[in-house]
């Protein structure tokens, strides 16, 4: 279920920002990411959780979060303290919450807590969306139910947590995790959500690797990626934006199909002689939609 009343484009890049570091939070909007995830979880030491809540709450409450061309603002909760986290950060400038270790029961609790917070702040029901992270074996096995849970707008994978729980030892291409990636892609398609968000590349000083692993995720059905450093954002945005040639080819397909239909024919072919059917046209429209979203 998409949050009501707030249509938005599908974000390509989600930049994690430690919630207990005011300087980084203040600079987050200038980093070029489509969305920023103000983190209350892994990036924050246990002793600093209260500081992180206060910092994020203060930022979201003032005018900086609502500046023109501001990114989407998401907050990653702690799975064990969702009530305290939501009470601190809920408000009109919050796009949504990222729920780690997402399962059906936790998402139901988050849905209830967000409803209470929306009423308290005078916001419409469903104003705050949910980005569910599949990070446990149970979450992956019930991925379809997680994707169908109230407010869930996007799914992501926490591959480090999954590898640890499943005793996997992923190689450089992480082929051992590809079946889990496919499960997330399928769950999103069944629930009619936007395609899932790819996991973070933890090797920070290798832009070629970042590009290669991002293009692999794109081929596997993902349409965005998280980042843990601002330098990763431009590469992620570029990879998940269609090229000029791809846009032109997609538009040509739509134009040719439209021309055939106007001429009373259901058959059209591309410039290189390939037949254009409904599936080809659907893929072309998806490319065009990403081009518009990335502008």
Report on the architecture of this protein:
This protein has helices spanning 22-27, 49-61, 82-89, 104-121, 137-141, 143-147, 159-166, 178-191, 207-219, 233-239, 244-262, 278-293; strands at residues 13-18, 35-39, 72-76, 96-99, 129-134, 152-157, 225-227, 268-269, 275-276. With 295 residues, the protein is of the alpha/beta class. The strands form 2 sheets. The chain has a 7-stranded parallel β-sheet with strand order 6-5-4-3-2-1-7. A two-stranded antiparallel sheet has the order 8-9. Strand 1 (13-18), helix 1 and strand 2 form a beta-alpha-beta unit.
Could you give the topology of this structure?
Elements: E1 13-18, H1 22-27, E2 35-39, H2 49-61, E3 72-76, H3 82-89, E4 96-99, H4 104-121, E5 129-134, H5 137-141, H6 143-147, E6 152-157, H7 159-166, H8 178-191, H9 207-219, E7 225-227, H10 233-239, H11 244-262, E8 268-269, E9 275-276, H12 278-293
Parallel strand pairs: 1-2, 1-7, 2-3, 3-4, 4-5, 5-6
Antiparallel strand pairs: 8-9
Helix pairs in contact: 3-4, 11-12
- What are the low-pLDDT stretches, counting only 5+ consecutive residues below 50? 1-7
Radius of gyration: 20 Å
Distance between the termini: 25 Å
Shape: globular
Short description:
The protein is α/β, with parallel strands linked by helices and 295 residues long. It has helices at 22-27, 49-61, 82-89, 104-121, 137-141, 143-147, 159-166, 178-191, 207-219, 233-239, 244-262, 278-293; strands spanning 13-18, 35-39, 72-76, 96-99, 129-134, 152-157, 225-227, 268-269, 275-276. The longest helix has 19 residues, at 244-262.
